[in-house]
Amino acid sequence: MAQQSVLAIDEGTTSSRALLLSNAGEIIASGTAPVPIHHPRSGWVQQAAMEIRNATAQAVAACLNAAACARQLPEQLLNK
Question: What is the pTM of this model?
């Protein structure tokens, strides 16, 4: 039977984080990527939606690459 797992994403102000967890809650792999912060004026803070999306994609890719290197990816992902 294929290994079941959960991919969790934590979107923070300064970084995106991804964790691949086993059904038992053990961390299989993780990945992070920075989220750019812009200060267009004094006292202002802005973030661009596409930069957040790109950071999330980078964190997920880093997590899945780490899992693949450790040969811990579920069969469904390995066979695609």
Answer: 0.80
